[in-house]
């Protein structure tokens, strides 16, 4: 006795499984991001940092200071 699945049911099942997998990955990534936001570290990609501005002032003889 074999189980025969019609191509339409197989396509619908495949589509549902792909959408469920994408929803799971999206939700897992969202919750991982929110967990990292609750405990920030300087190495996290959303942390900001400042750089001191350095001005290059041109002088005579194509020199800068």
List the helices and strands and how they pair.
Blueprint: H1 7-38
Tally of DSSP β-strands: 0
Specify the biggest β-sheet: none
List unreliable stretches of 5+ residues.
Answer: none
Helix content: 40-55%
* Structural category: mainly alpha
Average pLDDT metric: 84
Cα end-to-end separation: 87 Å
What are the main properties of this structure?
elongated; 1 helix; mainly alpha; 65 residues
Entry summary:
By secondary structure, this protein is mainly α. The protein has a domain at 1-44. The chain has one helix at 7-38.
Please explain how this structure is put together:
It is a single chain. With 65 residues, this protein is mostly helical. Helix content is 49%, strand content 0%. It is built from one helix and no strands. The longest helix has 32 residues, at 7-38. It starts with 6 loop residues before the first helix and ends in a 27-residue tail after the last helix.
């Amino acid at each position: 006795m074999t189980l025969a699945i019609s191509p339409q049911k197989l396509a619908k099942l495949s589509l549902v499984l792909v959408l469920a997998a994408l929803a799971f990955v999206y939700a897992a990534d969202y919750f991982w991001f929110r967990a990292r936001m609750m405990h920030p570290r300087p190495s996290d990609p959303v942390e900001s940092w400042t750089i001191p501005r350095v001005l290059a002032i041109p002088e005579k003889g194509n020199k800068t200071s």
